[in-house]
User: Fold this.
Amino acid sequence: MSLTLIAVVIALALGHVAPSLAASARDYGWYRQWLRWLDLRFPADGFWRGRSGVVVALLPPLLVVVIFQAALDKPLLGLAGLLFAIAVLFYCWGPRDLDLDVEAIINATDPVTRRDAAAKLAQVGVPPTLDAPSLVEAVFRNAQRRWFGVLFWFLLLGPLGAVLYRLSALACEEDAADLPPATRAGARSLLAVLDWPVAQLMTLALALVGDFDTVVSAWKDNGGASLQFDAPFLAVAGRASVRTELADEAMDFADDGIVVPNTLVAALGELPELRDAMSLVWRMLLLWLVVLALFVIAGWVG
Assistant:
């Protein structure tokens, strides 16, 4: 567990210290070519063109990761395994920098530039929207896909989990056009299953770092207590939390004798909802790391 924490911290630090390295290293062109090859190799109806066909795409790379993960676990007192875990987590994180993408939206000077920036957070095949609630949802959705999903499955299964999540997400997002319709539907179902525990833990973290009552209410009212894998409870809880944060800030400004909302917007910049959404996302990530550190400390004490 302690090696896992070290791997997480180093991989996250590398991503922020060396963004150009991260951008060049996180190239999944080989996976796109692999999907295209499979589609050409199995043109007729069969397993590949069914809902379980995504297994054919995932199994070979996952087997390679399992072999390396097992082989490097013990050598050099676990150092080789640690380096492999850092490399895999660094590779699977992102792939784009969420902070930079959100900052580009906030700093856009005209609607066209802002729409182009928002397109980097939009779902594949869905036109970007510039209203604040939709952008807040996009921030939380991208945090789940770029950060928390990879991190959760890495903590659970090691490098295998990180690769499983990233390749499953790619099959539903960037490379969806390379999959037959039924295979793509199966990939989306798999990703929904992988995302469900991540969304639950993200919502719990959001409740702890934000307004607890607001988040719990949104979670209950939007399918959080059910096994409905596509329930929108995280998105709704994120929007509600941001509204609460902005209301609290407006009250603070009013207490200081500052007129709101115009002065508030001028003081915080345009789209303060995005700034608060990113603040909440970072606090959630820090809470996850703190909990992981507590598990490590408990293991040492035990």
Remarks:
- The chain has one domain: 2-301.
- The CA atoms of residues 35 and 143 lie 26 Å apart.
